[in-house]
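TL;DR need structure tokens for one chain.
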Amino acid sequence: MAYFLVRNSLNPGKAVTFGITYRQVVDKSAQDGELIWVIEIATDEPHAVTSGTIPSYFINTTTLGDLDDEIEKGVAYVSSQIDWSPLVDDNVPPKVVASEPTDYIVDIYQNILVHIVDFHPSVGIDRSSITMTINGIDVSDDLAIFGDEFDYEIRWRPPSRVFEQYIE
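>> reply
TL;DR here they are.
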């Protein structure tokens, strides 16, 4: 069993210990005795409503390709049953901590980079709310967004670069 800590971003003073175990077992329902992974995610933290034990979350999979996503989903499910109070208010908006270019007028080849951070305690940045307009044109569909809900790097590269040709 491995142990790890989970924090709620609106209560950074509270950390809850989680355990994760995994075993590879034979799937008796399969004709060829295929091996499957059984992963258990659990905590000793009491249930927020019943004060009883929070049930373990189990993952059964034959591939490890989507395992990180499945573990994240399991941790989120178990975490949703924990009393994280007292929660603090998220009153501070995210901040742009870096942007390029820094000049007002730039070359047509210039890409745009914006780095946004939402410092704790916070709920995080809703990725679907990120938009960008350039010279009144919405370019949000062309954005490349990297990072997580607390730290995003947003890149925009003009999809087509139009040049005018002057003939004298």
